[in-house]
Design a protein that fits this description.
The complex is a heterodimer of chains A (112) and B (111).
Chain A: E1 4-7, E2 10-14, E3 19-25, E4 32-38, E5 45-51, E6 56-59, E7 62-67, E8 72-77, E9 86-92, E10 101-102, E11 106-111
Chain B: E1 4-6, E2 10-13, E3 19-25, E4 31-38, E5 42-51, E6 54-57, E7 64-70, E8 73-78, E9 87-94, E10 101-102, E11 106-110
Parallel strand pairs in B: 2-11
Antiparallel strand pairs in B: 1-3, 3-8, 4-5, 4-9, 5-6, 7-8, 9-10, 9-11
The chains are: A mainly beta (112), B mainly beta (111).
Amino acid sequence: GENVEQHPSTLSVQEGDSAVIKCTYSDSASNYFPWYKQELGKRPQLIIDIRSNVGEKKDQRIAVTLNKTAKHFSLHITETQPEDSAVYFCAASIYGNNRLAFGKGNQVVVIP
Amino acid sequence: DVKVTQSSRYLVKRTGEKVFLECVQDMDHENMFWYRQDPGLGLRLIYFSYDVKMKEKGDIPEGYSVSREKKERFSLILESASTNQTSMYLCASSPGVGEAFFGQGTRLTVV
């Protein structure tokens, strides 16, 4: 089955700087890559997703890039704010398939 | 607003007890999932269901079973709870493509 790995496991950034989290996946058939954010004590929520027919997608301060050849995708957060502090999970699946494979999560800490 | 509701936020059970975790969704989603979340291990899929009475094993099904008698409800059953099943359990539902919506989680402690 699909195997998704995230790096680094913990990331500390100064407020206003950028944060980048990278994920790699193993199944070349995967074509749907969502990112979930989980704040302390709360449920994971989708923040952005990308399908393999595009290489980049942006939503305000958040962007995701995808390199299908290298089988990796990254989450970019610009102008980080304290409310960006959370655990971020990447995932991969075949679009329309029921099953998401999640990475182990990244703890992002934004230092005021 | 999609709502996925888990029956308990916190649960304490004794070793050997049969434990039921209930999850209800109100968006008529075909797919429902049970995950287990442990520090450093991320979200691991226990079981999922893509239709009423249908189920498939996830990555860590041992010691668990599930039941989906109605489309909106998906139950996780610990046949004989053990201390290594102490964890946060998250239910999710999805419409078949795209976003999965999570419940608030049940923190289960087995003593």
